[in-house]
Amino acid sequence: MSRLKDNLDDIYSRYNKREYVNPDPLVFLYDYPEKKNREIAGFIAACLAYGQVELIMKTIALVLGKLEPTPFDYLFSRTKKDMVYDFKGFRYRFATDVHMVNLLWGIRAVLIQFSSLENCFSDGLASEDETILPGLVFFFQQISKDNQIGHLLADPQKKSACKRSLLFLRWMVRKDRVDPGGWENIHPSQLIVPLDTHMHKIGRMLEFTKRNSPDMKTALEITHGFRTVVRQDPVKYDFCLTRFGIRRELSMDHLGQTLFMIEN
What we know:
- The protein has two domains: 1-20 and 193-264; 25-185.
- A two-stranded antiparallel ribbon has the order 1-2.
- It is built from 13 helices and two strands, in the order αααααββαααααααα.
- The chain is mainly α.
- The protein has helices spanning 2-15, 35-47, 53-66, 71-77, 80-86, 97-114, 117-123, 133-144, 163-173, 197-205, 216-227, 238-242, 252-263; strands spanning 91-92, 95-96.
- 42% of the residues are buried.
């Protein structure tokens, strides 16, 4: 296991750098130094992070461009009727203007009740919770309450791996050269791996899971595997490992060969 950790740490030191971020929705968070704006922008970016990467980036830029002067100020200076006007005709894959406006109004309602998205999330967590899953359930319930938001936010009480929500939490909870952080009430040890196609393949390479279904159970198994390597920060290697397969110059085959050599 120590050889595996050494190799993962080497990959982390090489590729966990901002020069490898673009194109990734994470890049938008760097434009918001204040936590109150970063958490809103990050959450919206994560909700839209599905589909073709070029369209993801274009759509996030479009939405955030409408939330001026800042996301926080926009939410408290516009009525719901204003938002309907601002986003009239919006459509991104399964998401319509109705879904987007309801999402924004749900965020606003949470901010009114809890003062921040972080406070809402942490209110759903107990100190003894091993993972952030209970907080994720509570957060979803508060954001989607009385709001039809469609596929913009996955329900953690179903089988979904909730990849986009877990990606958002990684951005806000962890802080290093890539993840900007900002939240302080949740410990990185409670995070769950955001399970996409690339991380699923990597989890199987490392024999952290044998499951074929990319659901929450698989995400938890892979997270448990990484927790045996670095207990306090099981999502530490998510960004650098998933660059393989996402960026053209970093192939998944090369990563697989490297991980295979570790085990032998």
